[in-house]
């Protein structure tokens, strides 16, 4: 896969408001975000932490172009987000795969939908499946894959579009501890190599400190930025880092900010 230029993938969120109508006349409108600002540098790994309901998924959906703000602006490389686009890859907690397609056909789905059909794209898809350790499972259907394998297949499906920005909503939240660590290692390795911009939502403070360049702790409702932490830990990062004093100290600071955001 071609490396992604690090100067691409700047994300900006300006004064964004997003509300949801109540289900009935009596049910009040819910204000998920109000006056929300965020800048993510090209190639930066930003983690979003915050209490349930503070608007993290709402923000990711807006950046993905799955929904529109009431007001304010969201842009990638200065281009306003007007809908979904292949330059923004989205990964959710539940891997999105079509059950009736093989692993390889799932990966090729996006390029085919854009009428990219040549040998090049097929080679890229096969290469990616190798990279994610599914080289031998290209003909398997999703139900024949383990949970971790399905996550990796969904990853390959997103990466084949060579996104400049990866939007990840608790992608490893449902995995067992061992698979989760394996996926974190895999993501770190991939990001070290390609340096795409990542916006990563998690509830796990340790995961945020291990992965992120910066952590934005949100509070709500409506969602606001409560604290921002620069994580200046050396890279490449390995799991052993979590045992160091520096890591433990940072983790405590972030956890305290998160606890305050629940107050
Ligand atoms: N489609 C929707 N319709 C109505 N209300 C919604 C919708 N999506 C989100 N909300 C509301 O907007 C607010 C923010 O929700 P959101 O899912 O963004 O929070 P979150 O921080 O991602 O929460 P969690 O950590 O639990 O996933 C909540 O009050 C939620 O009930």
UniProtKB/TrEMBL annotation:
Domain ABC transporter positions: 11-245
Endpoints of the signal sequence: none
Pfam families: ABC_tran
Example of a GO MF term: ATP hydrolysis activity
Keywords: ATP-binding, Nucleotide-binding, Transport
InterPro entries reported in the protein's UniProt record: AAA+_ATPase, ABC_transporter-like_ATP-bd, ABC_transporter_ATP-bind
PANTHER family per record: ALIPHATIC SULFONATES IMPORT ATP-BINDING PROTEIN SSUB, TAURINE IMPORT ATP-BINDING PROTEIN-RELATED
Protein name: ABC transporter ATP-binding protein
